[in-house]
Amino acid sequence: MRETVDTDLGTMELKQKLMLKERRRKEEEYRKKVEERRLERIQELELARIEAARWKAEKEARIREAKHKEVKEARLRAEEEARRTAEEEARLKAQEEARLQGSRGCQGSGRKT
């Protein structure tokens, strides 16, 4: 009879050990899954941060390019305006010289007659 009790106790202990090992295995699997998910979230956040930084850099580059284009266009407009002003001044000066020469010519011919 004693052997049966010892065998039953041994079987119960083995079942308990097996259940304990199974529980520990499941807990370890759960911890691994939790850790994997945590690492995935960290990686996703890092990728999002990198993407945001890239987007910001591209936006800043577009703004710089637009400002550069505006400055270039303003400089070209100023150069064109300066050229037009110089041409107008040269035209007015030529007209004035022609007028003055024309009046000298009339005055000179008036004295000779």
Protein described:
The protein has one helix at residues 2-112. It has 113 residues and is mainly α. The protein is rod-shaped, with a radius of gyration of 48 Å. 0% of the residues are buried. Residues 66-99 have a biased composition (Basic and acidic residues). Residues 66-113 are annotated as: Disordered.
Oligomer: single chain
> β content, as a range?
under 5%
Terminal Cα separation, in Å?
A: 166 Å
Strands, total number: 0
- Helical coverage, percent range: over 70%
* Low-pLDDT segments, ≥5 res: none
Radius of gyration: 48 Å
Number of helices: 1
Summed over residues and divided by their number, the pLDDT gives a mean of: 90
Main sheet record: none
Q: Pairing-aware structural class of the strands and helices?
A: mainly alpha
Order of helices and strands: H
What does the overall shape look like? rod-shaped
Biased composition (Basic and acidic residues): 66-99
Region (Disordered): 66-113
Set out the fold topology:
Layout: H1 2-112
In a few lines, what is going on in this structure?
Residues 66-113 are annotated as: Disordered. The chain has 113 residues and is mainly α.
Q: Which properties best describe this structure?
A:
98% helix, mainly alpha, 113 residues, single chain
